[in-house]
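Recall that a protein's primary structure is simply its ordered list of amino acids. Everything else, from secondary elements to tertiary packing, is in principle encoded there. The following example makes that idea concrete.
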Amino acid sequence: MGVRIYALGYFDKQKFKREEAKMGIALHLEQMSTEEKIQTMESIWDNLCKKADSLPSPSWHKNILHEREEGIKNGNEKFVDWDKAKKYIRDKTS
């Protein structure tokens, strides 16, 4: 049984009904508490992790990784401590 998540916004009602019938379960995000949403995301993530080896990586992903490896080798890029990176992101987004 799959899970279908519907966010608020415009959607085709007929397509919605067809997809909902196929998937079996519809989660109406606007009616879910934050805790329920987080639990749902964790369940989905856990399920995906069980199948990680069978999920194909997008072609652009290999290219990006190669570019970053080259940047490290050439000295144009450097590794940053994860705590420092999180602080930088928090500072930039707050």
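The longest helix spans residues 34-50. The chain has four helices and two strands.
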